């Protein structure tokens, strides 16, 4: 192996966390910025991750009775206006289509032409346009529930963007459902939150807290918003998915009504829920280290990379044959619902550089195969969750037979490590002074490393939440659903409280 | 079964073909028009077809070495302008984003605000924005070939739209590749044309002609455009997929250059190729009949529908149990690379109405199951490619064992029928009079039924092509790749010609 740098990614997390994040993306070749303001290009290694995420989630949505459909990219401004809070929430950051062609002006410059009678907004989310269709499809209680999901791109004109975490255009899924009763709609809201939590923990290996948002963090137009919240390695929170109980707000805005069993026309109850390519940013910041990306096996763009070690031309054919047959053997194994994916890196180049390239790409298992391994019918294996020098020789048959178990072990280890990290940086806090101290950086030169999650009693109002945000850049991430009942007093107002909520800095 | 109408779809193909097309879509619940001009909503039954199409094509693209990626929805106008013919082709029909927020005017009406310095076009196709990225990624001959595909939505502001065939927004895939040599780029162009033809014939059961477009039908900016062309049941041609050899036009426009093996900086050679949701319109018009949609099994939204026949409440539990276990048994079978999809229609309602609903949806195999079938452990089966009354009783085990073969038989039969239809309506024509007669409707009251494909020698120019288009609304669909060499004379100019080309009216 080539001479090893102190770490493959520079700067390290400790040195400059935001820049480390960008460098991991670049080193793994996940994505890059495009010439279009705030829009990224998702490169093949990153897009494979998204495909794997889609595949698993899509199966979970279908298993819970949902069907996919596709609705228009454009929303007439008058539709967006139907729900007052909704338009308030999105009007300030939407791309507006005003013309339907270009023409050359006197100087030959192309300028917009063909003014539209009504401007169209590029969907920032689709409640209003889907609601218009749901109003047609919902006539009788027999038509309900309507359980629809859409995989799509959406646009929100963000002023400060960061790849995967906040981009002007992003890819997501948005579930939209209609129910006859409030109870069923609330049940759906919680079911999909649970699906997201299951996916985050069991596929991304990213532990999450499930909870309700406070009023100030609610989706515009929702009655209640629930989220899954994960802790990143800079100890900031990432809202990784949301599920909204919309009550009858959008049903009234879009006239989604039906005849109930007693033949009365009543408004329906709706929900919506979504996750996006932001998950990839969350996955990165949960597992990546100073050597680059670390992929959880169940979603990995590839499970195994095979690196042929060829020092002499006369061994080339033999080594390549062994590697090719090994790759084929591994690809015939199924793991977590899909075939094992193998990269066979037969490019010319120095072994050490190639090895490091795959470490930075986060492949869970690396195999170096040279004539000595072939002579003993074995493989020389390294794991991405261990140090880069820690490798062992294993009989080929044993490695092949144990690969699924090895991947499961890596997957479980990543989740456990992330859980331990979160536990280490979560503190119960009872006084305002302690909370302010917790969120005030000890090292003013490294403000990007944040304190973590503070569990504290809270009975304040919206203005007081705003104050904390202004003072500390801290928000209530959620009111956890599974927090134990515990009588206490709000650290700020002293008013009684019955459970702790989660405070953190957040993306 | 309920009393049977003369046909389930009204009007029939003969009575009013364009309206029949819309009615088949409505009756099968494939899609419907949205409140957004020219944009459709793809409903679950239609979207499943698209998912199946995506699944198969995606596998074919990956098997030929392509990787998926994702590029921005928006294209700065200056990028579109880089290739002169390209911008000429798309400037007249593109959605233009000019603002990035909305604000309330004095009357409280929301109006565009936040004017962009440079307008953005919603991608009508992505050569120019992808080209900008390819220019960065292509540095050395070692970086080539670049073989990228994108699944995406695109927008072309069409004045006359028709669901699936021509919509303002549509879903598609666009392949974009970069090669070191002209030969490799030409080979790629033909490889992907062959992939499309394979898919059309072997999955859609839609026979296609492969050929090159004349200059007037070329993709704006291409050196050569190839297409697959299918005959619809009104005997018009449908261009169902295109593959473009772009020469160095886009490489020069986007500065896609690389150092070749002799360390010289040279321009690369590029291709692009795409198919869209238009395929669903083609599939419909190839196979649907006056009773509605007919789905080829390899892409069917569902392979089998089970209709429990319950006349008395006391048999309900027994019938449902049998049907549920049969559904589970069928779902465990794999067919054409995915599990058999079964719909179990346990809704209340009259048997005949339910049966007709599934006939109109095009499900290949229907099973009606009542107490008598259960008593004999059998199924009562009907095929969508046969008359609605033609059903047979089969032992359950035999039906289960033979289902994949039955589906293959239906698939093969649909292709054969479509081939026979095309052959029946394809004629070799040698004179101008015959060609004009062929394309002049015998019945002026039913101009929507068109003559078919005319194979004729051609050595005319672009102006003469234009003349045929004006006189007859007929175009050269393609110069077939596999047409036998045959010396003849152009029916219009009398000039010598060495092969026949295909004339037809077209979508």
Explained architecture:
2 copies of one chain form a homodimer. Chain A has 507 residues and is of the alpha+beta class. The first copy, chain A, has 3 domains: 17-97 and 126-287, Bira Bifunctional Protein, Domain 2 (BirA Bifunctional Protein, domain 2); 297-410, Anticodon-binding domain (Rossmann fold, 3-Layer(aba) Sandwich), CATH 3.40.50.800; 426-504, Translation Initiation Factor IF3. The first copy, chain A, has an 11-stranded mixed sheet, with helices on both faces. In chain A, helix 2 packs across helix 6 (182-202). The longest helix of chain A is centred in the last third of the chain and has 29 residues, at 396-424. Chain A is globular, with a radius of gyration of 26 Å. At the A-B interface, strand 2, helix 2, strand 3, strand 4 and helix 3 of A face strand 2, helix 2, strand 3, strand 4 and helix 3 of B.
């Amino acid at each position: 192996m080539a001479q090893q740098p102190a770490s493959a990614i520079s700067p390290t997390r400790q040195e400059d966390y935001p820049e480390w994040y960008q460098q991991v993306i670049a080193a793994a070749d996940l994505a890059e910025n495009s010439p279009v303001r705030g829009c990224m290009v998702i490169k093949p290694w990153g897009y494979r991750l998204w495909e794997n995420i889609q595949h698993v989630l899509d199966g979970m949505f279908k298993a819970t009775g949902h069907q996919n459909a596709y609705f228009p990219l454009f929303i007439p401004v008058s539709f967006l206006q139907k729900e007052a809070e909704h338009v308030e929430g999105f009007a300030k950051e939407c791309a507006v289509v005003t013309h339907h062609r270009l023409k050359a002006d006197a100087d030959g410059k192309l300028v917009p032409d063909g003014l539209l009678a009504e401007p169209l907004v590029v969907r920032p989310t689709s409640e209003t346009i889907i609601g218009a269709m749901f109003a047609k499809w919902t006539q009788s209680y027999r038509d309900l529930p309507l359980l629809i999901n859409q995989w799509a791109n959406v646009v929100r004109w963000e002023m400060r963007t960061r790849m995967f975490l906040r981009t002007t255009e992003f890819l997501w899924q948005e579930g939209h459902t209609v129910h006859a009763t409030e109870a069923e709609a609330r049940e759906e809201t919680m079911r999909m939150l649970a699906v997201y939590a299951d996916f985050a923990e069991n596929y991304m290996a990213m532990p999450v807290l499930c909870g309700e948002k406070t009023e100030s963090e609610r989706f515009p137009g929702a009655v209640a918003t629930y989220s899954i919240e994960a802790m990143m390695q800079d100890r900031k929170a990432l809202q990784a998915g949301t599920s909204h109980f919309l009550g009858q707000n959008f049903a009234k805005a879009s006239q989604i009504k039906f005849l109930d069993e007693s033949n009365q026309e009543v408004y329906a109850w709706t929900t919506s829920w979504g996750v996006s390519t932001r998950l990839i940013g969350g996955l990165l910041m949960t597992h990546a280290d100073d050597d680059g990306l670390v992929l959880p096996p169940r979603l990995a763009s590839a499970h195994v990379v095979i690196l042929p070690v060829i020092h002499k031309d006369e061994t080339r054919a033999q080594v390549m044959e062994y590697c090719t047959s090994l790759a084929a053997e591994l690809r015939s194994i199924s793991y977590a619902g899909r075939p094992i994916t193998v990269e066979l890196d037969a490019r010319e180049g120095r072994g050490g550089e190639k090895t490091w390239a795959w470490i930075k790409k986060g492949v869970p298992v690396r195999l170096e195969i040279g004539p000595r391994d072939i002579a003993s019918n074995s493989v020389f294996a390294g794991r991405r969750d261990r140090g880069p020098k820690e490798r062992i020789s294993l009989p080929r048959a044993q490695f092949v037979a144990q690969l699924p178990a090895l991947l499961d072990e890596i997957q479980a280890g990543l989740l456990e490590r992330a859980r331990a990290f979160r536990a280490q940086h979560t503190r119960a806090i009872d006084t305002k002074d302690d909370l302010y101290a917790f969120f005030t950086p000890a090292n003013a030169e490294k403000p990007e490393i944040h304190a973590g999650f503070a569990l504290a009693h809270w009975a304040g109002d919206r203005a007081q939440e705003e104050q904390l945000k202004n003072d500390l850049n801290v928000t209530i991430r959620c009111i956890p659903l599974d927090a134990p009942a515990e009588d206490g007093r709000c650290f700020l107002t002293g008013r009684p409280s019955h459970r702790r909520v989660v405070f953190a800095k957040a993306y």
